[in-house]
Amino acid sequence: MYDISSLYQATSVADAIRALQADPKAILIAGGTDVLIKIREGRLPGCSLVSIHELGEELRGIALAPNGDVEIGPLSTFRDVTFSPIIRQHIPVLGEATDMAGGPQLRAVGTIGGNVCNGVTSADSASTLMALDAVLVVRGPAGERRVPISQWYKGVHQVNLAHDELLVKLLIPRENYDGFTGHYIKYAQRSAMDIATLGVSCLVKLSEDKRLVRQVKLAFGVANPVPMRSPAAEAAVAGLPLEEAIAQIGKAALQDVNPRTSWRASREFRLQLVEELSGRALREAARKGGAAV
Amino acid sequence: MEVGRSIPRVDAADKVTGRAKYTDDLCPRPVLEAKILHSTIANGWVKSMDISAAQALPGVVKVLTCFDVPDIQYPTPGHPWSVEKGHQDVADRKLLSRRVRIYGEDIAAVVAEDEITALHALELIRVEYEEYPVLLEPGQAMAPGAGAIHEEHPDNILAKMDLRTPITDPRYETVEQVLDDPQLYQFRGHYETQQVQHCHIENPVSFAWMEAGRIHVVTSTQIPHIVRRVIGQALGIGWGRIQVIKPYIGGGFGNKQEVLYEPLNAWLTTQVGGRCVRLDVSREETFQNTRSRHPISFDVAAAVDREGNLMARSCTAISNQGGYASHGNAIVANAITGFRQLYPDRVGHHSTACTVYTNRPAPGAMRGYGIPQCNFAAECMMEDIAQKFGFDPIELRLKNIMPLGYVDPFNGITCHSTGLRECILKGAEAMGWDELRAQYRNQTGPVRRGVGMACFSYKTGVYPISLETASARMVLNQDGTVQLQLGATEIGQGGDTVFSQMAAEAIGIPTEDVHIVSFQDTDTAPFDTGAYASRQTYVTGKAIKKVGLEFRQKLLSYAAELFPQAGELTIDGRAIADETGERLISLEDLATTAFYSLEHSVHITAEGTNHCKENTFAFGCCFAQVEVDIPVGKVKVLRLINVHDSGRLINPSLAAAQVHGGMSMGMGYALSEEMKLDPKTGRLLNGNLLDYKMPTSMDHPDLTALFVETDDPSGPFGNKALGEPPAIPVAPAIRNAVLNATGVAVNTLPLSPQKLVEEFTKGGLIGHV
Questions:
Q1: N or C: which end of chain A has fewer CB within 10 A?
Q2: At what angle do helices B587-596 and B541-562 cross, to 10 degrees?
Q3: Is the pTM of this model over 0.90?
């Protein structure tokens, strides 16, 4: 049994915003794969829910804008993202990342918007969206605003979203993916149904001859309390021959990350993973971009 | 032949279609819901409790605390009761406890109209504690001045034992002299195993009510008759006043060979006027408050001659019992016994064991009952001896394994049949052992491969350490089919199917004509102690055979009355046939006649008990091939092959399924599973299936189950233990494969990624500073 005192089924985004305004304690629920767990654990006793589950028409679906930007409706499930022809064609790394969340059942229900709004560093889509410099479009009573993902995460379970605001779109600007190939490594103890010990997402743009690194975008989950980019690593390898970049990127990333020791994994272990997996992610990303490495 | 057929499980269709009824499916609704208040300290006392706010909450029927329960301590393990006081289980638990011995101790219970109200009420209870330091490890608990967790054991030592086999070589007086003999290779080692849990799908759930002055309990258990006894003991009432019903259950693996919350639930219904109370526990509570596998540490020594003969070994095992005795010292006693039996030492053996109370969640029975622990120590040790002194690991084992005719010097258990040598050779061949060992020499690079193996022996049932008894009843139907009633339980392992096959074999009818009564109701089910110790196909099998033959004789006798002129009769193809093979009457006509005959009406039935006074050893081995990703500490199991000698197989496909499940359990034990506790508070940190890393289907290689079928003369159909053994040798086989791949010997379980990174760094394979 779930301790829920009320459930309001919103009929539109505007209606959901009104419902959130009307109840300052209401909790927004979409797929429910995070919220229901919190309710079961007793962390939201007697909660009131505003459900946007039925707003698929407004909030679900993946489209390619005329300018080439990829627009992702936040109610798109992990599965929607993975199997979207647009994602497969233009940003396959994002679909690969969402395919690593939980198991098949969760991926059919959990949404990419929820994954971002839940605000945890281990979220499987987060590091790739960081690497892609996604833009989050949120709507509130005063209208819409655009938040670069670099300004989104404020702390554990804290994101740049007011109580009466809704995430209505995830935008991947064309210049952020065009010409890049990427690879996401979810390092977890199990091959499915697990939480990342470390997530590494690497995008790379190679020279014409596929031997030089033009630009790298390297992002981590669980290397910090919030998902993060590694500017030091990105700067260190830009312009380097590929093998050299692969050899150096991990050490450089260590300058930026600050994982903590918890009972799940020690700081030292996570640092070893950062160093080792950064190079592996870059190698795979480059291989997908046609490099012979 | 009905025995030896790979027929589908008799419960397969019901289970896969969802028709099969489990405990919660049978619970009437609405029902009162019980929830338990767990302590937020690990060691101390409940000084006082304020339940007024909880009691006043609308919807709360009753709040009961550790100050209200009967002043009775009772035992909980699923052992047969002993009529000798000295052999009775340790009675150290109360229904709810003022003395807090683990984090999450059961200290109060709320009965309410619904679950949420009950949970709210728990939050309204105020508790005042007196708190003591947390003692999670035996070293802490045995330290002077640690304080007694149970007042009956001031030093926190539940039990100790010290066993020395007779010395067979006049040049020595003690095992220690052999171990110190400079003429021999000397080996010393230390190995440790971790605390893991069964992770059966169905959490322990029960519902209880009163009717006609008796208490009725439906519960998810492996041992209904024992549950009835313990409820009687815990409540201080006659055992006949209790009825326990066991429906289909979603796995047990030993956790339900324990009386868990049934006594509390039985008591709760008596406190609410006999209304039906449902007590369901969450997965988190199952982790924290039910049983698990004992962590055991082993200090071992061996003396080996130049040819690789084990001359002597010693083993000192310390078992962490957590807050309650449960199966207690029996586990580590089994562990040191198993350690000794697999390789009978030529000169002598010395083992000591000690079971220590701590503030951990209390371990109990779990598939293998101490043997997976000792097998890790024994088989790491054999590998390390081979490596250190330059023996071939398989040759070393073949030279030392238990021979046919071996008799244990303490308990007399005899090796009546063995296919262990053949198992090892078959496994080596299936793995391509020699080629791979050669291929994996001198590897470099971050990703390396290895192969490893381990073997085991395992007794069948608990005789003579404990009582072995089983009963069966067979009842004829009008259509010539038979109802089979047993006290032995189907717990997902396929028991009902093989019982039906054995009954059919004994009577001489097709298995399809045997209808097994799957659910046990202690009011009507014949007496049997239940599913544990890999005992049922052997011990219950003997009862089925005995009663089946008697039942067959009754059919033939009745037929002889109908056909007085016919000579020797037999049962053939659902009919009675004479010596010439001519069918005289169908079993259906015979049965109908017996029921309704105006001359001689009789309901043909047979019932009996077999008091089993035999035991025998099952054997087997595991071969593992792994790929180790050194920089990130990951082990990928590429192939896993188990080879078993469990005597004759009653149902080969079910046997293979049993082996697959055990291999999976062994993989988790080897690589990822571990109950982690906060050293400061004693709180279980990962008591859920996200943070407790049980392998998923994605983590498994193809699992290969092979058999060497011996014909055991003591088994009812040539069969011996199979249920538990598959889980035993997997962890050391994988550990030895990682050793083969990397040269790094990891001596504690599990081989988790972080530990491997630490070990590989120590071993110089990871250069990171």
A1: N
A2: 80
A3: yes
Q: What values do phi and psi take at B767, rounded to 5?
A: -90, -5
User: Which of residues B579, B611, B643 is at a domain's end?
Assistant: B611
Q: Based on C-alpha coordinates, what's the Rg of chain A?
A: 19
* Domain encompassing residue A192: 180-288
- As for the ipTM of the complex, it is 0.96
B393 burial (CB, 10 Å; 0-12 / 13-18 / 19+) is buried
For the segment B402-443, what is each residue's pLDDT rounded down to a tens digit?
Answer: 999 999 999 999 999 999 999 999 999 999 999 999 999 999
CB contact under 8 A, A189 and B693: yes
The model's pLDDT over A226-285, given as tens digits with 9 standing for 90+, comes to 999 999 999 999 999 999 999 999 999 999 999 989 999 999 999 999 999 999 999 999
Collect all residues of chain A within an 8 Å Cβ-Cβ radius of residue B686: 263
CB contact under 8 A, A269 and B114: no
| pLDDT over 80 (residue B769) | no
Using DSSP's 3-state secondary structure scheme, residue A189 falls into coil
Interface test with B, best of A6, A106, A120, A276 (most B CBs within 10 A): A276
User: Rounded to a whole number, what is the distance in Å from the CA of A291 to chain B's nearest CA?
Assistant: 22
Query: Average pLDDT in the B609-631 region?
Result: 98
Same domain, B188 and B317: yes
Partners of residue B458 on adjacent β-strands? B618
CATH number for the domain spanning B62: value is 3.90.1170.50
Q: Which residue is closest to A195 within chain B, CA to CA?
A: B690
Answer whether A267 touches B (CB < 8 Å).
no
Residue A53 corresponds to which tokens in the numbers above? 């589950």
pLDDT along chain A (293 residues), means of 10: 95 98 97 96 94 98 98 98 98 98 97 97 96 98 98 97 98 98 98 96 98 98 95 98 98 95 95 98 98 94
Of A1, A187, A192, the CB nearest to B114: A1
Q: Find chain A residues with C-beta within 8 A of B632's C-beta.
A: 187, 272-273, 276-277
CB contact under 8 A, B116 and A265: no
Q: Which tens digit of pLDDT belongs to each residue from B152-170?
A: 999 999 999 999 999 999 9
Is the CB of residue A76 less than 8 Å away from at least one CB of chain B? no
Chain B contact present for A193, CB below 8 A: yes
Smallest Cα distance from A282 to chain B, Å = 16
Is some CB atom of chain B closer than 8 A to the CB atom of A281? Answer: no
Q: How confident is the model at residue B573 (pLDDT cuts 50, 70, 90)?
A: confident
Distance CA B729, CA B669 (A): 10
Q: What is the CATH number of the domain that holds A214?
A: 3.30.390.50
Which chain B residues are within 8 Å of A281, Cβ to Cβ? none
B20 burial (CB, 10 Å; 0-12 / 13-18 / 19+) is middle
Q: Mutating which of A272, A274, A278, A280 best tests the B interface, going by the most B Cβ atoms within 10 A?
A: A272
B186 Cβ neighbours under 8 A, 6+ residues apart: B179, B180, B301, B302, B303
Q: Assess whether pLDDT exceeds 60 at residue B663.
A: yes
The pLDDT score that the predictor gives to residue A217 is: 98
